[in-house]
Design goal:
By secondary structure, the chain is an alpha/beta fold. The protein contains 6 helices and 5 strands, in the order E-H-E-H-E-H-E-H-E-H-H. Strand 2, helix 2 and strand 3 form a beta-alpha-beta unit.
Length: 171
């Protein structure tokens, strides 16, 4: 069981799916969310490291962990506390989420995450992967589907993702 997860990529649908999978796997854990463009990573590391007398373990999700990329943010993050946690995590779970297709692999923190964390890359499906993705999802849920219907579903899936992105940006 991993205690540190890094989820990144340019496909918000799959990123959200990975985050939801972790959250549902640890339903009994308390859930805490941070936006790393507003909060220093040190606060999230303190939260995930803190042992509570009255509650269960926690899942701390750090959205917009742009300090793992070359993208600048207004906050100067305390990376040292994160580095210590990565190597010696608590019983709680830390999830770092980056909506970017690449990480700055020159950074020590990224190298340590790749070594110790479970890393999930969530890229957009290529056109030739969409049909097999739709068919697999149908089979996984107990349905049969032919190629024509899968193609139509793929068109609907792409449209739905665009609408999902628009709705998310409207908030």
């Amino acid at each position: 069981m991993n205690k540190v997860y890094l989820i990144y990529g340019n496909e918000k649908y799959f990123i959200d799916e990975q985050v939801n999978k972790i959250v549902s796997e640890y339903k009994e854990y308390d859930l805490i969310n941070y936006d790393m463009c507003e909060t220093n990573i040190n606060k999230a590391v303190e939260e995930v490291s803190m042992i509570s007398l009255f509650s269960t373990d926690k899942i701390v999700i750090c959205y917009n962990a742009l300090f793992l990329t070359g993208i600048k943010c207004d906050i100067d993050h305390d990376i040292d506390s994160l580095l210590k946690f990565i190597v010696n995590p608590s019983t709680s779970i830390l999830v770092l989420v980056v909506n970017s297709d690449s990480l700055d692999k020159r950074k020590k923190v990224v190298k340590e995450l790749q070594k110790y964390a479970e890393v999930k890359e969530c890229d957009k499906l290529k056109e030739n992967e969409l049909l097999s993705f739709i068919k697999k999802r149908c089979v996984d849920n107990g349905y049969e589907i032919n190629n024509d219907v899968a193609f139509e579903c793929g068109m609907g899936f792409e449209l739905g993702k665009r609408l999902y992105g628009y709705m998310d940006n409207a908030d």
